[in-house]
Amino acid sequence: MDITALTSGKKVLFDNYLHAYLAAEDTSSGIVEAFAYSLKAGGKRIRPVLTMLACECLGGKADDALPAGLAIEMIHTFSLIHDDLPALDNDDLRRGRPTCHARFGEATAILAGDALIFQALSVITAAGYPPRIKLDILEFMAEVCGVKGLVQGEYRDVTAEGKEISMDEVRDIYRRKTARLFELCMFAGARVAGGAREQIEPLVGFGTYLGLAFQAIDDILDVTSSREVLGKTTGKDLAQDKATIVKALGLKESRRWARDMTEKAVALLPAAHVVRAEDLKELALSMLKRVA
Ligand code: FPP
Ligand code: MG
What's CA 46's distance to the chain center, in Å? Predict the structure, then answer.
């Protein structure tokens, strides 16, 4: 199945939830206007969809995963606002429109990103989840975002520019800057559904491999796709000599590696003994089709 067909129902559910959330915020504030602009820009909403699928596969309702999905999308959007800044990747196009700093200026973009971290925390604390579940999600979130996770991944990504890079190093960057957030989607969705530890572990492992495949596919598309199709600048990784899988392995081997990670993700699903694993499997396979 095509990725859009697979995710569209849940994407609508999520977008309605996001719009209701933003409608209750004071958009006369320049900061809120800036983060709402980036949040509303959209994209495929892979992370909230994944959070909902993780919840559903353990018998929970997609609706119940919406606050967790929103918090994760806020963290993701914050990370992209900062990733696009002149000091980092210096990009002016994201999701088909000017990046936050290109539209509102650098100072506003930095602060809008900062604000989103704490908005995300508030969304979790205000959610109707039992306190233990909120705490578990917040704990996992702090771990995947902090100095062992996204921040470290982004730091290595930026500091590895222009240097020789091994596939082990690329994998480590991918795990931290991308896959750990996919792990959080799986953890939060499964935790909200009341999954047992033995079920959550393989689902988080699914998130690891899916995230690794996702970042490999993203970097392959930077070489093979276009600005019009992706809604962001392409060809920049090569121009900036970024630490990507394509640089480490070349295009053909990169595709094979993405397929290998996808297969590893799917192979973990039976261990989770879930009610329904088909949609997670379809999501993984449809992502891979983008570079097949
Ligand atoms: C996009 O990668 C960027 C990321 C996946 C992570 C960005 C992380 C940070 C800015 C660190 C701060 C994060 C937290 C949560 C504290 P890319 O540049 O390869 O993709 P692109 O082509 O879409 O820009
Ligand atoms: Mg970037």
Answer: 7
Enclosing domain of residue 143: 3-288
Q: Decide whether any atom of ligand 1 lies within 6 Å of the 79 Cβ.
A: yes
Span 192-236, pLDDT tens digits: 999 999 999 999 999 999 999 999 999 999 999 999 999 888 998
Q: Residue 269 sits in a domain of what CATH number?
A: 1.10.600.10
Structurally, the chain folds into a number of domains equal to: 1
Q: Which ligand is nearest to the CA of 222?
A: 1
Nearest Cα neighbor of 187 from 206, 203, 169, 167 is: 203
Residue 154 CB less than 6 A away from ligand 1: yes
Render pLDDT for 223-277 as a digit per residue (tens, 0 to 9): 999 999 998 889 989 999 999 999 999 999 999 999 999 999 999 999 998 888 9
Dist CA 170 CA 166 (whole Å): 6
DSSP string, 110-129: HHHHHHHHHHHHHHHHHSSS
Establish whether residue 89 lines the binding site of ligand 1, counting it when its CB lies within 6 angstroms of any ligand atom.
yes
Which atom of ligand 1 is closest in space to residue 89's alpha carbon?
18
C-alpha distance across the termini of the chain, in Å: 13
Residue nearest to atom 7 of ligand 1 (CA): 79
Is the CB of residue 83 below 6 angstroms from any atom belonging to ligand 1?
yes
Please tell me if the CB atom of residue 66 comes closer than 6 angstroms to any atom of ligand 1.
no
pLDDT band for position 7 (50/70/90)?
Answer: confident
**Residues with Cβ within 5 Å of ion ligand 2?**
83, 89
Tokens for 193? 């559904």
CA–centroid distance, residue 150 to ligand 2 (Å): 13
